[in-house]
Request: fold
Amino acid sequence: MTASGAMIECEICPECLSRAEEYMPALISMLQGLHCLACGEGSGTIGICATFKRFFQAFFGEFFGHLRARGPSACSQQPVSFRIRQYALQRWARRIYRSGNLQQNRPPGKKWLLVQPVSTTSMMVDSGSVSMPLNLLMVATLAGTLFDVTLVDERLGDRVPEDLSSYDVVAITSRTLNASKAYSIAENARLQGKIVILGGVHPTMQAEEAMMFATSVVYGEIESVWEELALDLFRGTMKPVYRSEQLRQMNYMQPPDFSYAMQSRHSGKYSSRIPILATKGCPVGCNFCTTPTIYGKNYRYREVDIVLDEMRHHQQRLGKENVHFSFMDDNISFRPGYFTELLERMGRTGVRWNANISMNFLHKPEVAELAAWSGCDLMSIGFESLNPETLKSVHKGSNRLENYESVVRNLQLNGIAIQGYFMFGFDNESEESFQLTYDFIMNSRIEFPVFSLVTPFPGTPYFEEMKPRLRHFEWDKYDTYHYMFEPRGMNGEKLLENFVKLQKEVYKGRSILRRMKGKPLNWVWLANLQMNRFTKTLKPEIYL
Ligand code: B12
Ligand code: SF4
Reply:
């Protein structure tokens, strides 16, 4: 390379620049810690070890990718110019070179075992076809940039090996209903001297408890703490908790690598719907929900282009246009502007989709029309209750009783089926609430009603409020199908009796016909027939 004071003129958007600045200290400390091998004078390249290269690619790939693929001019932000002195880079490389040879100091490559535990609840939450665990696929995709990753999903019938000698790190995801299983796997791994990382909703909400079983607990999403966690793993200086002050923008999340889900020979048991994420968070703020507790009032989204790119990738991978996507978003419609843009653009791709949605603007007929045109065949809506006092007490501001019927009508007129969630056991309710709910479901012909018992999940404001009245803290029973506390309006016996009766009534043959007559013969019919069989077996005592 010629001697060089030469300046390279760069243009970059402020978003990318701040990202580079954010990464730089991590990168430098990585280099210092590992004594990476750099080239000698004059070659013009920096020679680096494979570990560092993977690290570098993982961190900077998307950064440069962003520049290459979109170019600053395509960016919504004004580009800023900056200049790099070429020879500063060379000096940096030489300093690293002199500091030692990586081959002698290279840390051993760590092998990860990533686990999706099966719940030991007595209810059928993990049976039949299960959705691909997008959360773990995202963890695997990030970890896989630096480490060898094996994914075990116990819900498929795969088991975590007793002998973990082939692995260095055992990382487990957990919700409350499978926390005890997650902890027993963690304990076994710790006894075998492994680094144990616990993540997911439950360890996030109960970090102190989770820390008793793990080397480290990750609070919230892995993307926001990944660099720090990965560096600490390399250095062997793990912290008890990884929690980021700032949430990373979703545009930088790597598209999940689905090959991890295909590692199992039982992967055929996965639902054919492809999980995908467009937004995160939900500022509605229901007091029983973990999302506002973890992510606050924050609502983030990926640029529509990026979501569509991911969809196209799956269409190519599966060799068909008509791919069915299942959005894992907390509330995909919270920002009407973003949601409508997504639908308008999705409509031209030929995909089908379903999602969780709040009814904040579903009462507008044009929204349902657009959703149907864009390929939506099912929306999951938390109606929760027909009692205005209850809705108020749980802070479910997005639900307006006066809109319930128009929301349902608009969707149905456009051929979109409704998976309607209803909760029972709130203090304001009486036996009458069951009749009210029954009438609403039958009159509005909701296709797929789902009933659950109110469950104050640990870490939520509702949990704190109800703690003194909770019957137990057996996490296996925090599956929304167990009796948690005696509501003020009726005793537990009456609650469960009515809960069972309602389900049997709604799913008896005649009711199914009344709700489903004239609707397309598809999987929703099948789900109803399965529920018909299942509800016949229900007895109040199974909910205890
Ligand atoms: C989509 C969804 C579903 C879907 C799909 C579930 C699935 N297979 O993943 C369906 C409809 C099937 C479903 C079912 C249920 N769900 Co649900 N669901 C969600 C929702 C809205 C999004 C989950 C998701 O995939 N998000 C996208 C992924 C990418 O984000 P993530 O899960 O947060 O993962 C990130 C981090 O947590 C972290 N992370 C996660 N795991 C790990 C592991 C490690 C090692 C590390 C380092 C990091 C890490 O990094 C990940 C990537 O960023 C959440 C709300 C939420 N935000 O969590 C509720 C939620 C998880 N569901 C909940 C409940 C109660 C249920 C049901 C019991 C409901 C019911 N009665 O049927 C069942 C249980 C199913 C089961 N067996 O787990 C509760 C769980 C509460 C709790 N404390 O456990 C939640 C939190 C909603 C709430 N009420 O607060 N659910
Ligand atoms: S609307 Fe749904 S996702 Fe949003 S806070 Fe309420 S329960 Fe949670």
Notes: Residues 50-74 form the longest helix (25 residues). The two ends are 75 Å apart (CA to CA). The pocket of iron/sulfur cluster (ligand 2) is lined by residues 282, 284-286, 289, 291-292, 330-331, 358, 382, 396, 398 (CB under 6 Å).
